[in-house]
Protein backbone atom coordinates (compact mmCIF):
# COMPACT_ATOMS: atom_id res chain seq x y z
CA UNK A 1 0.00 0.00 0.00
CA UNK A 2 1.29 3.47 -0.91
CA UNK A 3 0.52 5.23 2.37
CA UNK A 4 1.52 8.64 1.07
CA UNK A 5 -0.90 8.39 -1.86
CA UNK A 6 -3.61 7.08 0.47
CA UNK A 7 -3.20 10.04 2.84
CA UNK A 8 -2.89 12.49 -0.03
CA UNK A 9 -6.26 11.39 -1.36
CA UNK A 10 -7.84 11.88 2.08
CA UNK A 11 -6.43 15.43 2.22
CA UNK A 12 -7.60 16.12 -1.33
CA UNK A 13 -11.10 14.95 -0.40
CA UNK A 14 -11.08 17.34 2.56
CA UNK A 15 -9.88 20.19 0.34
CA UNK A 16 -12.64 19.43 -2.14
CA UNK A 17 -15.21 19.51 0.67
CA UNK A 18 -13.92 23.02 1.44
CA UNK A 19 -14.33 24.08 -2.19
CA UNK A 20 -10.57 23.95 -2.85
CA UNK A 21 -8.64 22.36 -5.69
CA UNK A 22 -4.90 21.89 -5.96
CA UNK A 23 -1.97 19.77 -4.85
CA UNK A 24 -1.95 18.93 -1.12
CA UNK A 25 1.84 18.79 -1.25
CA UNK A 26 2.05 15.85 1.14
CA UNK A 27 5.67 15.04 2.04
CA UNK A 28 7.41 12.91 4.68
CA UNK A 29 8.03 15.19 7.65
CA UNK A 30 11.50 16.68 7.83
CA UNK A 31 11.85 15.89 11.56
CA UNK A 32 10.08 13.42 13.90
CA UNK A 33 8.62 16.23 16.01
CA UNK A 34 6.62 17.33 12.95
CA UNK A 35 4.90 13.95 12.79
CA UNK A 36 5.18 11.44 9.97
CA UNK A 37 3.87 13.51 7.04
CA UNK A 38 3.38 17.20 6.45
CA UNK A 39 0.82 18.90 4.19
CA UNK A 40 2.54 21.96 2.76
CA UNK A 41 0.42 22.76 -0.29
CA UNK A 42 -2.25 24.78 1.53
CA UNK A 43 -0.25 28.00 1.30
CA UNK A 44 -0.13 27.85 -2.49
CA UNK A 45 -3.86 27.15 -2.66
CA UNK A 46 -4.55 29.99 -0.21
CA UNK A 47 -2.51 32.41 -2.30
CA UNK A 48 -4.56 31.61 -5.40
CA UNK A 49 -7.82 31.91 -3.41
CA UNK A 50 -6.55 35.08 -1.66
CA UNK A 51 -7.31 33.51 1.72
CA UNK A 52 -5.45 33.34 5.02
CA UNK A 53 -3.47 30.05 4.83
CA UNK A 54 -3.77 29.19 8.54
CA UNK A 55 -7.50 29.78 8.41
CA UNK A 56 -7.78 27.64 5.31
CA UNK A 57 -5.65 24.88 6.82
CA UNK A 58 -7.96 24.88 9.85
CA UNK A 59 -10.96 24.32 7.60
CA UNK A 60 -9.21 21.42 5.87
CA UNK A 61 -8.35 19.86 9.25
CA UNK A 62 -12.00 20.09 10.28
CA UNK A 63 -13.02 18.25 7.11
CA UNK A 64 -10.30 15.56 7.29
CA UNK A 65 -11.48 12.00 7.90
CA UNK A 66 -8.52 10.15 9.43
CA UNK A 67 -10.23 8.18 12.18
CA UNK A 68 -8.20 5.11 13.01
CA UNK A 69 -5.46 6.23 10.62
CA UNK A 70 -3.80 9.25 12.22
CA UNK A 71 -3.82 11.18 15.46
CA UNK A 72 -5.75 14.50 15.38
CA UNK A 73 -3.96 16.66 12.76
CA UNK A 74 -1.90 19.59 14.03
CA UNK A 75 -1.86 23.08 12.51
CA UNK A 76 1.71 24.40 12.35
CA UNK A 77 3.55 27.47 11.13
CA UNK A 78 2.01 29.65 8.43
CA UNK A 79 -0.35 26.92 7.21
CA UNK A 80 1.23 23.48 7.47
CA UNK A 81 -0.70 20.41 8.64
CA UNK A 82 1.24 17.74 10.52
CA UNK A 83 0.00 14.15 10.42
CA UNK A 84 1.08 11.34 12.75
CA UNK A 85 -0.11 7.79 12.04
CA UNK A 86 -1.66 5.90 14.92
CA UNK A 87 0.25 2.98 16.49
CA UNK A 88 -2.67 0.70 15.56
CA UNK A 89 -2.47 1.70 11.89
CA UNK A 90 1.29 1.08 11.86
CA UNK A 91 0.86 -2.26 13.61
CA UNK A 92 -1.76 -3.42 11.10
CA UNK A 93 0.50 -2.76 8.11
CA UNK A 94 3.68 -4.05 9.73
CA UNK A 95 1.97 -7.33 10.61
CA UNK A 96 1.24 -8.17 6.96
CA UNK A 97 3.96 -9.91 4.91
CA UNK A 98 5.98 -7.66 2.61
CA UNK A 99 4.28 -7.44 -0.78
CA UNK A 100 4.15 -4.85 -3.55
CA UNK A 101 0.59 -3.86 -4.38
CA UNK A 102 -0.03 -4.20 -8.15
CA UNK A 103 -0.63 -1.07 -10.20
CA UNK A 104 -4.27 -0.04 -10.45
CA UNK A 105 -4.05 0.35 -14.24
CA UNK A 106 -1.43 -2.11 -15.48
CA UNK A 107 0.12 -1.32 -18.84
CA UNK A 108 2.00 -3.17 -21.55
CA UNK A 109 5.45 -1.57 -21.35
CA UNK A 110 8.13 -2.16 -23.98
CA UNK A 111 11.63 -1.45 -22.69
CA UNK A 112 14.43 -0.85 -25.22
CA UNK A 113 17.76 -1.29 -23.46
CA UNK A 114 21.35 -2.56 -23.73
CA UNK A 115 21.42 -2.58 -27.58
CA UNK A 116 25.14 -3.21 -28.21
CA UNK A 117 26.71 -3.10 -31.64
CA UNK A 118 27.43 -6.71 -32.61
CA UNK A 119 30.49 -5.75 -34.65
CA UNK A 120 32.50 -5.50 -31.41
CA UNK A 121 32.58 -6.87 -27.89
CA UNK A 122 30.52 -5.12 -25.22
CA UNK A 123 32.40 -2.35 -23.43
CA UNK A 124 31.78 -0.07 -20.45
CA UNK A 125 29.66 2.21 -22.63
CA UNK A 126 26.98 -0.51 -22.63
CA UNK A 127 26.91 -0.94 -18.85
CA UNK A 128 24.53 1.86 -17.89
CA UNK A 129 21.86 1.06 -20.49
CA UNK A 130 21.96 -2.62 -19.57
CA UNK A 131 21.71 -2.41 -15.78
CA UNK A 132 19.45 0.65 -15.51
CA UNK A 133 17.04 -0.85 -18.04
CA UNK A 134 17.12 -4.18 -16.22
CA UNK A 135 16.32 -2.60 -12.85
CA UNK A 136 13.36 -0.70 -14.28
CA UNK A 137 12.10 -3.87 -16.01
CA UNK A 138 12.16 -5.71 -12.68
CA UNK A 139 10.29 -2.89 -10.93
CA UNK A 140 7.63 -2.66 -13.63
CA UNK A 141 7.10 -6.43 -13.61
CA UNK A 142 6.79 -6.46 -9.81
CA UNK A 143 4.04 -3.85 -10.06
CA UNK A 144 2.08 -6.14 -12.38
CA UNK A 145 2.78 -4.44 -15.69
CA UNK A 146 3.26 -6.64 -18.75
CA UNK A 147 6.85 -5.99 -19.82
CA UNK A 148 8.39 -6.81 -23.18
CA UNK A 149 12.17 -6.55 -23.22
CA UNK A 150 13.66 -5.39 -26.54
CA UNK A 151 17.39 -5.67 -27.16
CA UNK A 152 17.71 -3.54 -30.31
CA UNK A 153 21.20 -4.78 -31.22
CA UNK A 154 23.11 -3.27 -34.14
CA UNK A 155 23.58 -6.16 -36.57
CA UNK A 156 23.25 -4.43 -39.92
CA UNK A 157 25.03 -1.82 -42.02
CA UNK A 158 28.21 -1.10 -43.98
CA UNK A 159 30.64 -2.32 -41.31
CA UNK A 160 29.30 -5.86 -41.65
CA UNK A 161 30.38 -5.95 -45.30
CA UNK A 162 33.92 -5.20 -44.11
CA UNK A 163 33.77 -7.88 -41.41
CA UNK A 164 32.28 -10.55 -43.69
CA UNK A 165 34.87 -9.93 -46.38
CA UNK A 166 37.73 -10.24 -43.88
CA UNK A 167 36.16 -13.36 -42.36
CA UNK A 168 35.79 -15.02 -45.78
CA UNK A 169 39.21 -14.08 -47.12
CA UNK A 170 41.16 -14.73 -43.92
CA UNK A 171 39.43 -18.07 -43.40
CA UNK A 172 38.80 -17.04 -39.83
CA UNK A 173 38.37 -19.86 -37.34
CA UNK A 174 36.00 -19.81 -34.38
CA UNK A 175 39.02 -19.25 -32.11
CA UNK A 176 39.95 -16.08 -34.03
CA UNK A 177 36.36 -14.83 -33.97
CA UNK A 178 36.27 -15.38 -30.22
CA UNK A 179 38.24 -12.12 -29.89
CA UNK A 180 35.82 -9.89 -31.74
CA UNK A 181 37.67 -6.72 -30.86
CA UNK A 182 40.94 -7.91 -32.43
CA UNK A 183 39.07 -9.22 -35.46
CA UNK A 184 37.33 -5.87 -35.95
CA UNK A 185 40.63 -3.98 -35.76
CA UNK A 186 42.18 -6.25 -38.39
CA UNK A 187 39.22 -5.79 -40.75
CA UNK A 188 39.18 -2.01 -40.24
CA UNK A 189 42.89 -1.72 -40.98
CA UNK A 190 42.42 -3.57 -44.26
CA UNK A 191 39.37 -1.49 -45.14
CA UNK A 192 41.25 1.78 -44.56
CA UNK A 193 44.46 0.78 -46.34
CA UNK A 194 43.34 -1.48 -49.19
CA UNK A 195 41.05 0.12 -51.79
CA UNK A 196 40.27 -3.21 -53.47
CA UNK A 197 39.34 -4.76 -50.13
CA UNK A 198 37.06 -1.79 -49.45
CA UNK A 199 35.42 -2.28 -52.85
CA UNK A 200 34.84 -6.00 -52.17
CA UNK A 201 33.43 -5.09 -48.75
CA UNK A 202 30.88 -2.73 -50.31
CA UNK A 203 29.91 -5.45 -52.76
CA UNK A 204 29.34 -7.79 -49.82
CA UNK A 205 27.03 -5.19 -48.26
CA UNK A 206 24.92 -5.25 -51.41
CA UNK A 207 24.94 -9.07 -51.39
CA UNK A 208 23.93 -9.11 -47.74
CA UNK A 209 21.10 -6.62 -48.18
CA UNK A 210 19.78 -8.40 -51.26
CA UNK A 211 19.63 -11.71 -49.38
CA UNK A 212 22.42 -13.55 -51.18
CA UNK A 213 22.58 -16.97 -49.49
CA UNK A 214 26.35 -17.23 -48.93
CA UNK A 215 26.60 -13.70 -47.55
CA UNK A 216 23.64 -14.24 -45.24
CA UNK A 217 25.09 -17.53 -43.94
CA UNK A 218 28.46 -15.90 -43.18
CA UNK A 219 26.71 -12.94 -41.55
CA UNK A 220 24.59 -15.27 -39.39
CA UNK A 221 27.70 -17.09 -38.18
CA UNK A 222 29.25 -13.79 -37.12
CA UNK A 223 26.03 -12.64 -35.42
CA UNK A 224 25.67 -15.90 -33.49
CA UNK A 225 29.20 -15.60 -32.13
CA UNK A 226 28.66 -11.94 -31.23
CA UNK A 227 25.40 -12.68 -29.43
CA UNK A 228 27.04 -15.48 -27.46
CA UNK A 229 29.57 -12.90 -26.23
CA UNK A 230 26.71 -10.62 -25.15
CA UNK A 231 24.82 -13.40 -23.39
CA UNK A 232 27.92 -14.36 -21.41
CA UNK A 233 28.14 -10.76 -20.15
CA UNK A 234 24.41 -10.65 -19.35
CA UNK A 235 24.69 -13.88 -17.37
CA UNK A 236 27.62 -12.56 -15.34
CA UNK A 237 25.77 -9.32 -14.64
CA UNK A 238 22.66 -11.24 -13.62
CA UNK A 239 20.39 -9.26 -15.94
CA UNK A 240 17.20 -10.72 -17.40
CA UNK A 241 18.03 -10.37 -21.10
CA UNK A 242 18.08 -13.57 -23.14
CA UNK A 243 18.31 -14.48 -26.82
CA UNK A 244 14.50 -14.36 -26.96
CA UNK A 245 14.62 -10.62 -26.19
CA UNK A 246 16.83 -9.76 -29.16
CA UNK A 247 14.94 -7.68 -31.73
CA UNK A 248 17.79 -6.51 -33.95
CA UNK A 249 17.99 -3.76 -36.53
CA UNK A 250 17.88 -6.38 -39.26
CA UNK A 251 14.39 -7.44 -38.13
CA UNK A 252 13.04 -4.21 -39.60
CA UNK A 253 14.99 -4.33 -42.85
CA UNK A 254 12.08 -5.41 -45.06
CA UNK A 255 9.84 -2.73 -43.54
CA UNK A 256 12.13 0.24 -44.26
CA UNK A 257 10.95 0.90 -47.85
CA UNK A 258 7.36 0.92 -46.57
CA UNK A 259 8.31 3.43 -43.87
CA UNK A 260 9.63 5.74 -46.60
CA UNK A 261 6.49 5.26 -48.72
CA UNK A 262 4.23 6.02 -45.74
CA UNK A 263 6.19 9.16 -44.89
CA UNK A 264 5.80 10.28 -48.51
CA UNK A 265 2.08 9.53 -48.47
CA UNK A 266 1.74 11.62 -45.31
CA UNK A 267 3.40 14.52 -47.13
CA UNK A 268 6.34 14.58 -44.73
CA UNK A 269 9.26 13.86 -47.09
CA UNK A 270 11.49 16.53 -48.63
CA UNK A 271 14.52 15.82 -50.81
CA UNK A 272 17.65 17.65 -49.70
CA UNK A 273 20.99 17.12 -51.46
CA UNK A 274 19.64 13.85 -52.82
CA UNK A 275 18.63 12.54 -49.36
CA UNK A 276 15.07 12.01 -48.13
CA UNK A 277 14.41 14.13 -45.03
CA UNK A 278 11.61 15.16 -42.72
CA UNK A 279 11.57 18.81 -41.63
CA UNK A 280 9.41 19.70 -38.63
CA UNK A 281 9.19 23.35 -37.59
CA UNK A 282 9.58 22.49 -33.90
CA UNK A 283 13.23 21.52 -34.48
CA UNK A 284 15.00 24.74 -35.32
CA UNK A 285 18.70 25.27 -34.79
CA UNK A 286 20.33 28.35 -33.31
CA UNK A 287 20.53 29.84 -36.80
CA UNK A 288 16.76 29.56 -37.19
CA UNK A 289 16.97 26.80 -39.80
CA UNK A 290 14.93 23.64 -39.30
CA UNK A 291 17.03 20.58 -38.46
CA UNK A 292 16.18 17.63 -40.73
CA UNK A 293 15.64 14.02 -39.72
CA UNK A 294 17.34 12.12 -42.54
CA UNK A 295 15.57 8.83 -43.26
CA UNK A 296 17.23 7.78 -46.54
CA UNK A 297 20.66 8.67 -47.87
CA UNK A 298 21.29 9.84 -51.40
CA UNK A 299 22.63 6.36 -52.30
CA UNK A 300 19.37 4.76 -51.13
CA UNK A 301 20.73 3.54 -47.80
CA UNK A 302 18.76 3.82 -44.57
CA UNK A 303 19.76 5.25 -41.21
CA UNK A 304 19.17 4.65 -37.51
CA UNK A 305 16.20 7.01 -37.68
CA UNK A 306 14.49 4.85 -40.31
CA UNK A 307 14.94 1.72 -38.23
CA UNK A 308 13.74 3.50 -35.09
CA UNK A 309 10.58 4.63 -36.89
CA UNK A 310 9.95 1.05 -38.05
CA UNK A 311 10.50 -0.16 -34.47
CA UNK A 312 7.94 2.31 -33.10
CA UNK A 313 5.38 1.17 -35.65
CA UNK A 314 6.04 -2.48 -34.76
CA UNK A 315 5.77 -1.78 -31.03
CA UNK A 316 2.55 0.16 -31.49
CA UNK A 317 0.78 -2.06 -34.02
CA UNK A 318 2.13 -5.55 -33.38
CA UNK A 319 3.08 -5.49 -29.70
CA UNK A 320 0.18 -3.14 -28.80
CA UNK A 321 2.32 -1.28 -26.29
CA UNK A 322 0.92 1.39 -23.99
CA UNK A 323 4.32 2.77 -23.06
CA UNK A 324 7.78 2.46 -24.68
CA UNK A 325 10.94 3.31 -22.74
CA UNK A 326 14.33 3.90 -24.37
CA UNK A 327 17.48 3.79 -22.21
CA UNK A 328 20.33 5.37 -24.18
CA UNK A 329 23.14 7.87 -23.83
CA UNK A 330 22.01 11.47 -23.25
CA UNK A 331 23.74 12.51 -26.48
CA UNK A 332 20.91 10.86 -28.41
CA UNK A 333 18.25 13.14 -26.89
CA UNK A 334 17.68 15.22 -30.04
CA UNK A 335 17.55 12.10 -32.19
CA UNK A 336 14.75 10.59 -30.12
CA UNK A 337 12.80 13.84 -29.85
CA UNK A 338 12.80 14.05 -33.64
CA UNK A 339 11.98 10.36 -34.15
CA UNK A 340 9.08 10.53 -31.69
CA UNK A 341 7.70 13.69 -33.33
CA UNK A 342 7.94 12.21 -36.83
CA UNK A 343 6.34 8.94 -35.66
CA UNK A 344 3.38 10.89 -34.31
CA UNK A 345 3.10 13.09 -37.40
CA UNK A 346 3.12 9.99 -39.65
CA UNK A 347 0.57 8.13 -37.51
CA UNK A 348 3.06 5.38 -36.59
CA UNK A 349 2.48 6.17 -32.89
CA UNK A 350 -1.09 6.80 -31.73
CA UNK A 351 -1.68 9.79 -29.41
CA UNK A 352 -2.14 7.60 -26.33
CA UNK A 353 1.16 5.72 -26.77
CA UNK A 354 3.73 6.99 -24.26
CA UNK A 355 7.14 7.32 -25.91
CA UNK A 356 9.85 8.13 -23.37
CA UNK A 357 13.57 8.57 -23.88
CA UNK A 358 15.24 8.02 -20.48
CA UNK A 359 18.80 9.29 -21.02
CA UNK A 360 21.83 8.64 -18.87
CA UNK A 361 25.15 10.41 -18.38
CA UNK A 362 28.66 9.08 -18.91
CA UNK A 363 30.88 6.90 -16.74
CA UNK A 364 34.03 8.89 -15.97
CA UNK A 365 37.42 7.94 -14.60
CA UNK A 366 38.85 9.53 -11.47
CA UNK A 367 40.41 12.19 -13.72
CA UNK A 368 36.92 13.31 -14.75
CA UNK A 369 37.39 12.07 -18.33
CA UNK A 370 35.59 9.16 -20.06
CA UNK A 371 36.56 5.88 -18.40
CA UNK A 372 39.42 4.25 -20.33
CA UNK A 373 42.16 1.66 -19.91
CA UNK A 374 45.57 2.88 -18.74
CA UNK A 375 46.65 2.75 -22.37
CA UNK A 376 43.72 4.98 -23.31
CA UNK A 377 41.61 2.28 -24.96
CA UNK A 378 37.99 1.29 -24.43
CA UNK A 379 37.48 -1.00 -21.42
CA UNK A 380 35.82 -4.29 -22.32
CA UNK A 381 32.95 -5.14 -20.04
CA UNK A 382 34.31 -8.64 -19.40
CA UNK A 383 37.61 -7.12 -18.21
CA UNK A 384 35.78 -4.73 -15.89
CA UNK A 385 33.79 -7.56 -14.33
CA UNK A 386 36.94 -9.68 -13.98
CA UNK A 387 38.65 -6.88 -12.06
CA UNK A 388 35.57 -6.29 -9.89
CA UNK A 389 35.50 -9.96 -8.87
CA UNK A 390 39.25 -10.08 -8.25
CA UNK A 391 39.18 -6.97 -6.05
CA UNK A 392 36.18 -8.31 -4.13
CA UNK A 393 37.93 -11.68 -3.67
CA UNK A 394 40.90 -9.98 -2.03
CA UNK A 395 38.55 -8.20 0.40
CA UNK A 396 36.58 -11.37 1.18
CA UNK A 397 39.77 -13.39 1.71
CA UNK A 398 40.98 -10.81 4.22
CA UNK A 399 37.67 -10.52 6.08
CA UNK A 400 36.45 -14.13 5.99
CA UNK A 401 39.48 -16.37 5.61
CA UNK A 402 37.77 -19.05 7.71
CA UNK A 403 35.06 -19.68 5.08
CA UNK A 404 35.47 -22.48 2.52
CA UNK A 405 37.17 -21.38 -0.69
CA UNK A 406 34.13 -22.18 -2.85
CA UNK A 407 31.90 -20.02 -0.65
CA UNK A 408 34.42 -17.16 -0.70
CA UNK A 409 34.37 -17.33 -4.52
CA UNK A 410 30.55 -17.05 -4.55
CA UNK A 411 30.63 -14.14 -2.11
CA UNK A 412 33.30 -12.37 -4.17
CA UNK A 413 31.16 -12.68 -7.28
CA UNK A 414 28.08 -11.29 -5.52
CA UNK A 415 30.04 -8.45 -3.90
CA UNK A 416 32.09 -7.52 -6.97
CA UNK A 417 29.27 -7.54 -9.51
CA UNK A 418 26.87 -5.99 -7.01
CA UNK A 419 29.34 -3.19 -6.27
CA UNK A 420 29.69 -2.28 -9.96
CA UNK A 421 25.94 -2.29 -10.52
CA UNK A 422 25.02 -0.41 -7.36
CA UNK A 423 27.69 2.27 -7.92
CA UNK A 424 25.91 3.08 -11.17
CA UNK A 425 22.31 2.61 -10.06
CA UNK A 426 22.76 4.71 -6.92
CA UNK A 427 23.60 7.79 -9.02
CA UNK A 428 20.94 9.87 -10.73
CA UNK A 429 20.99 8.36 -14.22
CA UNK A 430 20.81 11.80 -15.87
CA UNK A 431 24.23 12.74 -14.44
CA UNK A 432 27.77 11.69 -15.27
CA UNK A 433 29.49 9.81 -12.43
CA UNK A 434 33.03 8.96 -11.35
CA UNK A 435 33.99 5.29 -11.39
CA UNK A 436 35.99 4.68 -8.18
CA UNK A 437 36.93 1.13 -7.15
CA UNK A 438 37.74 2.04 -3.55
CA UNK A 439 34.44 3.84 -3.01
CA UNK A 440 32.19 1.23 -4.62
CA UNK A 441 33.76 -1.71 -2.75
CA UNK A 442 33.70 0.02 0.62
CA UNK A 443 31.69 -1.51 3.47
CA UNK A 444 30.84 2.00 4.66
CA UNK A 445 28.46 4.45 3.03
CA UNK A 446 25.89 4.05 0.29
CA UNK A 447 27.36 0.97 -1.40
CA UNK A 448 26.25 -2.53 -2.30
CA UNK A 449 28.69 -4.19 0.16
CA UNK A 450 27.23 -2.08 3.00
CA UNK A 451 23.68 -3.18 2.16
CA UNK A 452 24.67 -6.79 1.53
CA UNK A 453 26.44 -6.87 4.88
CA UNK A 454 23.37 -5.35 6.57
CA UNK A 455 21.36 -8.32 5.28
CA UNK A 456 23.86 -10.89 6.50
CA UNK A 457 24.02 -9.12 9.86
CA UNK A 458 20.25 -9.50 10.29
CA UNK A 459 20.43 -13.13 9.22
CA UNK A 460 23.00 -13.73 11.94
CA UNK A 461 20.42 -12.54 14.49
CA UNK A 462 17.97 -15.23 13.40
CA UNK A 463 20.66 -17.90 13.53
CA UNK A 464 20.73 -17.21 17.29
CA UNK A 465 16.94 -17.49 17.67
CA UNK A 466 16.24 -21.01 18.95
CA UNK A 467 12.49 -21.05 18.19
CA UNK A 468 9.82 -19.28 16.18
CA UNK A 469 8.91 -15.96 17.74
CA UNK A 470 5.18 -15.50 18.44
CA UNK A 471 2.99 -12.96 16.64
CA UNK A 472 2.53 -9.86 18.79
CA UNK A 473 1.20 -6.34 18.53
CA UNK A 474 3.64 -4.66 16.11
CA UNK A 475 2.87 -1.12 17.31
CA UNK A 476 6.27 0.61 17.78
CA UNK A 477 7.02 1.31 21.44
CA UNK A 478 10.34 3.16 21.04
CA UNK A 479 11.28 6.19 18.93
CA UNK A 480 13.88 4.17 16.99
CA UNK A 481 11.30 1.45 16.33
CA UNK A 482 8.88 4.02 14.96
CA UNK A 483 11.45 5.62 12.67
CA UNK A 484 12.37 2.19 11.30
CA UNK A 485 8.68 1.29 10.89
CA UNK A 486 7.93 4.47 8.96
CA UNK A 487 10.81 3.79 6.57
CA UNK A 488 9.62 0.21 6.05
CA UNK A 489 6.13 1.38 5.13
CA UNK A 490 7.43 3.73 2.40
CA UNK A 491 8.67 0.85 0.22
CA UNK A 492 5.61 0.80 -2.06
CA UNK A 493 5.83 4.55 -2.62
CA UNK A 494 9.48 4.33 -3.69
CA UNK A 495 8.89 1.38 -6.02
CA UNK A 496 6.06 3.27 -7.74
CA UNK A 497 8.29 6.33 -8.14
CA UNK A 498 11.01 4.28 -9.84
CA UNK A 499 8.44 2.80 -12.23
CA UNK A 500 7.00 6.21 -13.10
CA UNK A 501 10.28 8.06 -13.57
CA UNK A 502 12.77 5.35 -14.50
CA UNK A 503 15.16 6.50 -11.76
CA UNK A 504 16.53 3.52 -9.77
CA UNK A 505 18.63 5.78 -7.53
CA UNK A 506 15.46 6.59 -5.56
CA UNK A 507 15.33 2.93 -4.50
CA UNK A 508 19.05 2.97 -3.64
CA UNK A 509 18.63 6.05 -1.43
CA UNK A 510 15.65 4.39 0.25
CA UNK A 511 17.54 1.15 0.97
CA UNK A 512 20.55 3.00 2.35
CA UNK A 513 18.30 5.06 4.62
CA UNK A 514 16.55 1.87 5.72
CA UNK A 515 19.84 0.16 6.57
CA UNK A 516 20.96 3.26 8.46
CA UNK A 517 17.74 3.41 10.48
CA UNK A 518 18.01 -0.30 11.22
CA UNK A 519 21.53 0.24 12.55
CA UNK A 520 20.26 3.03 14.81
CA UNK A 521 17.38 0.83 15.96
CA UNK A 522 19.70 -2.08 16.72
CA UNK A 523 22.01 0.14 18.76
CA UNK A 524 19.17 1.62 20.81
CA UNK A 525 16.81 -1.35 21.14
CA UNK A 526 18.09 -4.69 22.45
CA UNK A 527 16.56 -7.54 20.47
CA UNK A 528 17.57 -10.99 21.71
CA UNK A 529 17.97 -9.88 25.33
CA UNK A 530 14.70 -7.92 25.49
CA UNK A 531 11.57 -8.90 27.42
CA UNK A 532 9.27 -11.39 25.64
CA UNK A 533 6.87 -9.00 23.89
CA UNK A 534 9.59 -6.49 23.05
CA UNK A 535 11.78 -9.31 21.76
CA UNK A 536 9.05 -10.68 19.47
CA UNK A 537 8.11 -7.23 18.15
CA UNK A 538 11.72 -6.32 17.47
CA UNK A 539 12.39 -9.65 15.79
CA UNK A 540 9.36 -8.88 13.62
CA UNK A 541 10.93 -5.54 12.68
CA UNK A 542 14.20 -7.31 11.91
CA UNK A 543 12.41 -9.82 9.67
CA UNK A 544 10.53 -7.08 7.82
CA UNK A 545 13.75 -5.10 7.35
CA UNK A 546 15.56 -8.13 5.95
CA UNK A 547 12.72 -8.90 3.54
CA UNK A 548 12.64 -5.28 2.37
CA UNK A 549 16.40 -4.99 1.89
CA UNK A 550 16.55 -8.29 0.00
CA UNK A 551 13.47 -7.38 -2.04
CA UNK A 552 14.84 -3.96 -2.94
CA UNK A 553 18.28 -5.29 -3.87
CA UNK A 554 16.54 -7.98 -5.92
CA UNK A 555 14.73 -5.26 -7.89
CA UNK A 556 18.15 -3.75 -8.60
CA UNK A 557 19.38 -7.14 -9.78
CA UNK A 558 21.87 -7.45 -6.90
CA UNK A 559 22.49 -10.80 -5.21
CA UNK A 560 22.75 -11.08 -1.42
CA UNK A 561 25.12 -13.81 -0.17
CA UNK A 562 24.05 -15.90 2.81
CA UNK A 563 26.98 -14.61 4.84
CA UNK A 564 30.02 -12.39 4.36
Question: Can you offer a commentary on this structure?
Answer:
The protein is an alpha/beta fold and 564 residues long. Among the domains are: 83 residues, Gyrase A, domain 2, CATH 3.30.1360; 83 residues, no CATH class. The protein has 21 helices and 13 strands. The protein has a 4-stranded antiparallel sheet with strand order 1-2-4-3, covered by helices on one side. A 4-stranded parallel sheet has the order 6-5-10-11, with helices on both faces. Strand 8 and strand 9 form a beta hairpin. Helix 1 packs across helix 3 and helix 18 packs parallel to helix 21. It is globular, with a radius of gyration of 28 Å. The chain starts with a helix and ends in a 9-residue tail after the last helix.
Low-confidence stretches: none
The description of the largest β-sheet is: 4 strands, antiparallel
Structural class: alpha/beta
- The CATH homologous superfamily of the domain at 3-85: Arginyl tRNA synthetase N-terminal domain
Overall 3D form: globular
Q: Report the CATH C-level class of the domain at 3-85.
A: Alpha Beta
Roughly what percent helix?
40-55%
CATH architectural type of the domain at 3-85:
2-Layer Sandwich
Mean pLDDT: 94
CATH topology of the domain at 3-85: Gyrase A, domain 2
Query: How many strand elements?
Result: 13
Query: What Rg, in angstroms, do the CA atoms define?
Result: 28 Å
Distance between the termini: 33 Å
In DSSP terms (H or I, runs of 4 or more residues), the helix count works out at: 21
Q: Strand share of the residues?
A: 5-15%
Strand order of the largest sheet: 1-2-4-3
Amino acid sequence: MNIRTFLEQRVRNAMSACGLAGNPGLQPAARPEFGDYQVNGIMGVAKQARRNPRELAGEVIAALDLDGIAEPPELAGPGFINLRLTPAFLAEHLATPLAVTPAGNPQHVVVDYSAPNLAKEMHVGHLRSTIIGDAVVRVLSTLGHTVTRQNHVGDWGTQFGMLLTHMQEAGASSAELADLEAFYVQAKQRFDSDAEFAMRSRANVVALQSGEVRARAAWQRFIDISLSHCQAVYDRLGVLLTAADVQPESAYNDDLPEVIRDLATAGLLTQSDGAQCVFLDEFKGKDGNVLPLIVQKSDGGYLYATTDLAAIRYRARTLRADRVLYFTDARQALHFRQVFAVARAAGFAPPDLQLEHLPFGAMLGRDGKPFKTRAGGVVKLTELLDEATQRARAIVNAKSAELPEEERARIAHAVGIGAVKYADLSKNRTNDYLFDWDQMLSFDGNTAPYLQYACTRIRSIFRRVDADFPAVDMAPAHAAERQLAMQLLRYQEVVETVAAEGLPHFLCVYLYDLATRFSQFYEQCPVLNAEADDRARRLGLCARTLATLEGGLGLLGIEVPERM
